Amino acid sequence: MVIYAVKDYEEMSKKAASIIGAQILMKPDAVLGLATGSTPVGTYQQLVKWYEQGDLDFSKLTTVNLDEYKGLPGDNDQSYRYFMNTNLFDHVNINKENTFVPNGLEEDAAYECGRYDKVIEATGGVDLQLLGIGGNGHIGFNEPSDSFEKGTHCVALTESTIQANARFFDSIDDVPKYAYSMGVGNIMSAKKILLVASGQGKAQAVYDSCFGPITPQVPASALQLHTDVVIIADEAALSLCR
Ligand code: F6R
Predict the structure, then answer these.
(1) Is residue 216 predicted with pLDDT exceeding 90?
(2) Interatomic CA distance for residues 191 and 94, integer angstroms
C-alpha cells in the first residue's frame, strides 16, 4: 500500500487524475472501475480538462461502475448512471456502450447481480479501480458487516449512509434504501486500486483501513491484502495517521 499525503482536495484530484491519465496513455483500451460521490468529482473534472486539451483519448476505454441505487432509473438526477454521464462521459469521447453501471431498475436482485458479475468478467478484468471511502469504511456499497461479499450483491443501506447521502435528495425519505454494489471480491480482483479520501470525516476510516485489523467491519481494510493499492489522501483525511 502506497499512501500519498497531499495538501487538499485540489491536489488530491490532480494526483488521482494523473494516475488515471497515465493508465489511459499506457493502455488506451484499459478497463477502468469507477466510483461516484463527492470525492472523485474533481478527479473527473481534471480528466475532462486534459481531454479538452487533446491530451487524453477515451474512445477505446471500457468502464464498470461500482454501484447503483436500486429503484432509480438512469435518467434520475440522483442515479449513479446520471452522475457518470454528467460528470465524465458526456464530456469526453468515450463510447457509452462500453460504460457499465448496474441496472437500478431491475427488481430481480439475484438476476441483476449475476448479470453484472458477468459484465465485469466479460471486460477481461479491471486494470485500475478508483474508490472513494465512506466515513464508516465502506467501499462501493459494501457496508460494515460480519463477512466480506465476493460478488455483486444487493445491499440494505445503513442508517449512517442514508443520512450521509440525504444531502443529495429533497428529503431523507427519498433516499433509496437498497443498492446494487460490486463485492469486495470484485474490487480486490482489479489489477491496481486507487483510493481517494478528503476531509476530516474520512480520518477514522482511513486510519482503520490502513492500520487497523483486516475486518469486514471496516470493508476498506481488505485493501491491505491487495498488492497494488495507492491511497491519495489530504491532510485532514490523514490527520489520525500522523
Ligand atoms: C460511490 C461509492 C461510495 C463512495 C463513498 C464516499 O460509487 O462507491 O463508496 O465512494 O460513499 O462518498 P463521498 O465521496 O461522497 O464521500
Answers:
(1) yes
(2) 22
Residue 226 falls in the annotated catalytic set: no
Q: What is the reported pLDDT for 168?
A: 85
Give the pLDDT confidence of 152-191 residue by residue, as tens digits: 999 998 888 789 888 888 999 989 999 999 999 999 999 9
Q: Ligand 1 mean position to 138 CA, how many Å?
A: 8
| Digit-coded pLDDT (tens) for 34-74 | 999 999 999 999 999 999 999 999 999 999 999 999 999 99
Nearest one of 210, 220, 42 to 131, comparing CA atoms: 220
Give the ligand 1 atom nearest the CA of 34.
7
Pull the grid cell for residue 8. Answer: 487538499
Three-state DSSP state, 197: strand
Q: Determine the pLDDT at residue 114.
A: 98
Pick the CATH number of 2-234 from 3.40.1190.20, 3.40.50.300, 3.40.50.1360, 3.40.30.10: 3.40.50.1360
138 is catalytic: yes
Distance 37 CA to ligand 1 centre (A): 4
- Has 91 been annotated as catalytic? no
Q: Tell me what ipTM this predicted complex has.
A: 0.99
- Distances 104 to 14, 112, 136 between C-alpha atoms, Å: 31, 9, 24
Whether ligand 1 lies within 6 angstroms of the CB of 137 is answered as no
Kindly state if the Cβ of 134 falls inside 6 Å of ligand 1.
yes
Domain ranges for the chain, please list them. Answer: 2-234
Residues 6+ positions from 18 with CB-CB distance below 8 Å: none
